[in-house]
Specification:
Rossmann fold, nine-stranded mixed β-sheet, 14% strand, disordered N terminus, disordered C terminus
Length: 559
């Protein structure tokens, strides 16, 4: 009873803050002050009462959210341990409405053990569906029959994906382009087919030079693993067309680079930025005959570790400003293609230093920067010391016919430490991180792709562009540092041609992890793209008075 009495007195004081007489009567504005008979409410007491009321208001808001019909019969878009915070596919959050988030309270230690899951709302990658374009074969896109036949024989591919339907005609027309589409959508073949066709049709125009290597096409990639993968795909196609492919990468010494360059004629060169710049500086390589330059995974190539090297390469390239200059057989200039899962903020500034951006076509997917709807994504709030045991239990629960597993860590030391833990529990696995020698790194990923091991513990070195169609589960043991990294990691599953639908499990431990999770959950509930990833390339084009309909209108966006 005493508690209720004093609680009522506190509530009365909060509703009427100010000074009170000893008898409980409040001083009116006209009465003279009587300081000797007045009780002053302490500020700490007022703050405490406000906190009590704010907690009550929060409980009332959650009760209201529980009564809101945001879960309807049928499929769920977001499943939460707390049923009142789940959201059905039939419920939509307004653009300016702030959704009730599961992760709102995850910065408090009492939230450990909480989780939510983004359900799989599609059974196939969205890029497979492209009803806006009726073209269903590569010859209908302009690909030569010999090239299409080589593709069918080498890779058993006969039907283009959405990104290929949009990009191939533009690139065959000689236009330079900035192309961004979600991971696993088939971007590699989208630029390789136009590139190889141009090399195939122009074989009789260019004479081969024995004294200095002058490739007619160059593909620049950020890692040796990705360079090896693209070289393998290109080799399967080129060997059937009488073309020659070479690959150079860093970490192997300049002598190895020289031997590879002079091992035979080179039509297509696949290279990492460091190795390519070394060869150019030592004049082992010339770009005077270059007709086609591709910057693959351009969002990674614009990282501080690569951007200066990429700028040097562009400065030594005669970039075309129109398709007419590309088609000039007597003195052709270089057609530039920048490919990535995102268009980063620096790409416009970089290209504007070396060429006129008004000649570029902007090709973006309708699903760019969106969370993949066909991939199940689970977020678990955990204490850092509990992550290892949770991972071991997750691996133990896998079925006998399960696919491969990628476990991502943010640092090489964590990869090594977690590898020791798995060794102690007799879990067979491979490790991949950037501090390993180049030869060891290449063999590790090759063994994983061939299925010799089905668990790979790695850093983000394996998150960009690598073919992982055998992977069923991605585990973010360390939550990624940026939203870009999260999209790339999720893109390792559910790719075009994948045998498994794909699942991602993310362990959330730090307060800064929660900030990113809240952005992801908000985007999922609103069915909106992830925030802060919009490139300013279009703004630069507008400044040059380029028609938006011509360069990035509805006819160009991937449907």
């Amino acid at each position: 009873m005493a508690f209720s009495f004093w609680g009522a007195r506190q509530a009365a004081f909060l509703r009427a803050p100010g000074r009170f007489l000893l008898g409980g009567a409040r001083l009116s504005s006209g009465e003279p002050p009587q300081e000797e008979n007045v009780i002053q409410i302490p500020h700490a007491w007022q703050r405490r009462l406000q906190q009590v009321e704010s907690k009550a208001a929060r409980r009332a808001r959650l009760a209201e959210a529980a009564a809101t019909p945001n879960t309807r019969a049928g499929k769920l878009l977001l499943r939460s341990r707390r049923q009142e915070l789940s959201q059905g596919t039939g419920y939509s959050v307004g653009r300016w409405q702030r959704p009730h988030l599961v992760s709102d309270g995850w910065k408090h230690r009492l939230s450990r053990g909480d989780y939510f899951q983004l359900e799989r709302t599609r059974q196939e990658p969205p890029q497979k569906r492209d009803e806006a374009d009726s073209s269903s074969s590569f010859p209908e896109l302009g690909v030569e029959p010999q090239v299409a036949s080589a593709l069918q024989e080498a890779l058993a591919i006969s039907e283009p994906t959405a990104v290929q339907k949009r990009a191939i005609p533009v690139l065959l027309g000689g236009r330079s382009a900035l192309c961004a589409a979600e991971t696993g959508s088939g971007k590699t073949l989208a630029y390789l087919l136009p590139l190889i066709q141009r090399l195939f049709l122009g074989q009789s125009i260019f004479a081969r030079h024995a004294s200095i290597v002058s490739p007619r096409a160059v593909v620049v990639l950020p890692s040796r693993e990705l360079a090896g993968q693209v070289r393998s795909v290109a080799f399967y196609l080129c060997v059937r067309l009488g073309l020659h492919v070479r690959e150079i990468g860093g970490g192997r010494g300049i002598g190895t680079v020289r031997r590879k360059l002079h091992s035979g004629p080179t039509d297509l060169l696949v290279a990492t930025p460091g190795a390519l710049c070394k060869a150019l500086r030592r004049r082992m390589l010339s770009l005077e005959k270059l007709c086609f330059l591709v910057l693959d995974e351009v969002d990674t190539l614009l990282d501080p570790s690569f951007v200066d090297l990429v700028e040097d390469i562009l400065q030594q390239t005669r970039l075309a400003t129109s398709s007419k200059e590309v088609r000039d057989d007597s003195d052709p200039k270089t057609q530039l293609v920048a490919m990535g899962a995102t268009l980063p903020k620096g790409v416009g500034e970089l290209l504007s230093k070396v060429t006129d951006l008004s000649s570029f076509r902007i090709l973006t997917s309708s699903y760019l920067h969106y969370l993949q709807p066909h991939v199940e994504q689970k977020f678990v709030r955990l204490k850092g010391s509990d992550k290892a045991s949770e991972l071991l239990q997750l691996l133990k629960d896998r079925g006998p016919n399960s696919g491969a597993v990628l476990i991502f860590c943010n640092g090489a030391s964590t990869v090594n430490w977690l590898g020791y833990i798995l060794d102690d529990h007799k879990v067979k696995h491979l490790r991949l991180q950037g501090q390993m020698p180049a030869a060891m790194r290449g063999s590790i990923f090759t063994r994983f792709q061939k299925g010799q091991f089905d668990i790979l513990v790695c850093t983000d070195i394996a998150s960009r562009g690598l073919d992982t169609t055998q992977v069923e589960l991605v585990v973010n043991y360390d939550f990624p540092l940026t939203l870009h990294d999260y999209l790339h990691r999720v893109g390792r599953v559910g790719r075009t041609g994948s045998k498994f639908p794909g699942t991602v499990v993310s362990y959330v431990t730090h307060k800064w992890d929660v900030d990113l999770v809240k952005k992801i959950e908000t985007a999922a509930r609103k069915r909106a793209p992830l925030p802060g990833m919009e490139p300013p390339v279009k703004k630069l084009l507008f400044k040059r008075d380029v028609s938006p309909t011509e360069d990035f209108g509805p006819k160009i966006a991937f449907e």
